[in-house]
Specification:
The complex is a heterodimer. Chain A is α+β, with helices and mostly antiparallel strands. Chain A contains 3 helices and 5 strands; from the N terminus they run E-H-E-E-H-E-H-E. A 4-stranded antiparallel sheet of chain A has the order 1-4-2-3. In chain A, strand 2 and strand 3 form a beta hairpin. The radius of gyration of chain A is 14 Å and the shape is globular. In chain A, about 40% of the residues are buried. By secondary structure, chain B is α+β, with helices and mostly antiparallel strands. Helix content of chain B is about 45%, strand content about 15%. Chain B has 10 helices and 10 strands. A 4-stranded mixed sheet of chain B has the order 1-4-5-8. Chain B is globular, with a radius of gyration of 22 Å. The chains are: A alpha+beta, B alpha+beta. Strand 5 of chain A pairs antiparallel with strand 6 of chain B.
Chain lengths: ~120, ~375
């Protein structure tokens, strides 16, 4: 079974101050990708994030590697974040390159458990 | 008259755990996300070692397996203490005290213990408990549709499970499948998580952001008969034994959260002024605090009564059900009143109350909902006529 249907459904948007300032300051999950759409980071805006998703995505403005972002408002941001990490790892065999190794600490598995991953 | 005054040994353990929560756990929570259910890896390793050094690690392990062999009463008193922090309801002390593994594994044969129980006690393997299904969780004996069919020395299992915690990062699990009709038609199996045909199909998002549940799927999953746990058709008894015992610490954790919420409410009422007066001086607030106290004291006594009966080796199914209803319902009311006393601050993520409110709501459903517990109690009172 493919787990790709669990990914964020909103479209990729080019990172710019204008686009980011239009984001709501809510909790949720987000992805940062390079200009080609290759996901570099999966993160969340939680209870300690200043200005929620807007604040978290704004941290990547000016990062030369970051070209695109997409977000999903979600109060269950931790379980959703872990789900996105599991989906990504299930499909690629690794975490996004900008996610620290500790994000893989006791991270679970979606789909068939037929290989071992970094961070297990 | 049952005496619930802690012994000197219990008091010493309670003091150690209380200090550990206050000095080691709560300070770390100031930097964690309000919904976090795990520590950073380095903090986890450090505190786990500290728990080992203090003799607090592996407290659920029976004495014959190298553990301290705590009785149910002591373990219940400690559960009340261990839960008194933000993540305490579902991640008491973030697991640094270790666990006992799945209680059913103590009934396993020697080979199964070598492969699953002992690695679990050493912290090398994690297991999950797979009972509930999409067709229902309150009446598992009738609801289980996952089917196991004997094929030579193997069993071939097809079906699904729902609301299963910890399956996504587990190494193995105990699942229950139908091998016949009725309650005597359920058999337990130990399943390795890398078995072909096994997969975690999705995360189930609930009020509880961390420590989520999952849905599992089994498609032509082939299990050796050597991984059958217990006798064919005895699975429901294995599952049921766990359910009653689990309800006591489950209830104790709720009491702990209620105590923690009440502390916050009392402290806040003594410093917060409205219209020129402290909240504590207002009768409306006083009565809420008093109602909290009734809820806490009465539910605590009922939980300890169940623990005492379990320690005496008596049947405690009804007492566990009473404790479960009393503690989960009372703690829900206490947290709700504590939020009301705090006003807007109470529903913000600045305080743990909003998290406890969300998670406590689940407690009236998990491990058998209030209505099923009342059914158990009614059957004890009325016998078969209760239905």
């Amino acid at each position: 079974m493919s787990v790709s249907g669990l990914a964020i459904r909103s479209p990729w948007t080019e990172i710019s101050e204008g686009a980011v300032s239009a984001l709501h300051a809510n909790p949720g999950v987000y992805e940062i990708a390079d200009a080609s759409g290759q996901t570099l980071l999966i993160g969340y805006a939680g209870g300690k994030s200043l200005f929620g998703l807007r604040g978290e995505v704004a941290k990547h403005i000016g990062n030369p590697r970051a070209g695109l972002f997409r977000v999903e408002q979600n109060m269950q941001y931790i379980s959703r974040w872990k789900e996105l990490l599991m989906v990504f790892r299930s499909e690629t065999g690794a975490l996004p390159v900008l996610n620290p190794a500790e994000d893989g600490f006791r991270l679970g598995h979606l789909g068939p458990r037929n290989r071992s991953f970094d961070g297990d | 008259m049952i005496e619930f005054e802690p012994t000197s040994e219990q008091t010493s353990l309670i003091d150690n755990v209380r200090r550990f929560v206050r000095e080691e756990i709560i300070p770390l929570e100031a930097d964690l996300d309000p919904d976090a259910a795990s520590l950073r890896p380095d903090d986890f390793a450090r505190l786990r070692q500290k728990a080992i050094d203090l003799g607090l690690h592996g407290m659920d392990t029976p004495a014959e397996y190298g553990g301290p062999g705590l009785d149910v009463m002591t373990r219940t008193l400690l559960a009340i203490e261990m839960s008194q922090h933000r993540a305490g309801l579902y991640a008491s002390c973030y697991g640094v005290f270790g666990g006992a593994g799945l209680a059913q594994m103590y009934e396993a044969n020697d080979d199964q213990k070598e492969r699953y129980l002992y690695p679990s006690l050493r912290g090398e393997k994690h297991g999950f408990f797979g009972l509930s299904e999409p067709s229902g969780g309150s009446d598992p004996a009738r609801a289980i549709r996952t089917k196991a069919v004997r094929d030579g020395d193997d069993w071939v299992i097809n079906g699904s499970k729902l609301w299963i915690s910890g399956a996504d990062d587990a190494d193995f699990g105990i699942i229950f499948a139908r091998t016949g009709e009725g309650r005597q038609g359920i058999t337990a199996f130990i399943v390795d998580a890398d078995t072909p045909g096994f997969q975690v199909t999705r995360v189930v998002h609930t009020l509880r952001s961390a420590h989520y549940a999952t849905e599992l799927s089994f498609q032509d999953m082939r299990i050796s008969d050597g991984n059958r746990l217990g006798e064919i058709g005895n699975g429901f008894a294995i599952a049921n034994g766990r359910l009653s015992a689990q309800r006591i610490p489950y209830s104790a954790q709720c009491v702990g959260i209620a105590i923690a919420a009440q502390k916050l409410a009392v402290e806040y009422s003594q410093i917060r002024e409205t219209f020129g007066q402290l909240l504590a001086s207002r009768q409306a607030i006083q009565w809420m605090l008093v109602d909290n106290e009734f809820d806490i004291r009465s539910s605590r006594l009922l939980v300890l009564e169940a623990a005492a009966k379990a320690d005496r080796g008596e049947e405690f199914r009804t007492e566990a059900a009473v404790a479960k209803v009393a503690a989960t319902e009372a703690a829900g009311r206490v947290v709700d009143r504590a939020i009301q006393i705090h006003g807007g601050l109470g529903v913000s993520k600045e305080l743990p109350l909003e998290r406890w409110y969300r998670e406590m709501r689940i407690r009236r459903i998990g491990e058998g909902p209030t209505e099923v517990q009342k059914l158990i109690i009614a059957r004890d009172l009325l016998g078969k006529v209760a239905g």
